[in-house]
Amino acid sequence: MTLQQIAKRVAALEADVATLKRKPKRRVLWWNKIAGKFAGDPLFSEAMQEGRKWRTGQQMKSNGSKKRDLKRDDG
User: Fold this and answer.
1) Residue 70 near residue 49, CB atoms below 8 Å
2) What percent of the chain has pLDDT over 90?
3) Which residues of 1-29 are buried (b: 16+ CB within 10 A; e: fewer)?
4) Side-chain half-sphere CA neighbours of 68 within 13 A
């Protein structure tokens, strides 16, 4: 590789780095915005328990596993 080719490649890489630096910072993911918003909400806890019951029922149908304890508190 000639010195001219290396200089051209370095210039292209520098341009790419400059483009990357101009891009906006990492955006906040939607689930990070709402995390903790339902803490202590009894309706949310009930919804989570019902979802857990449904998933456990689906697991039991698919692999015959034993029922787990569903008394975990999400609030």
Assistant:
1) yes
2) 47
3) eeeeeeeeeeeeeeeeeeeeeeeeeeeee
4) 14
* CA–CA distance, 25 with 8 (Å, rounded to integer): 28
Dihedral sign of CA atoms 27, 30, 34, 35 in order: negative
pLDDT tens per residue, range 8-32: 999 999 999 999 888 877 788 888 8
Match 């200089």 to its residue by tokens.
7
Phi, psi torsion values for 25, nearest 5 degrees: -60, 165
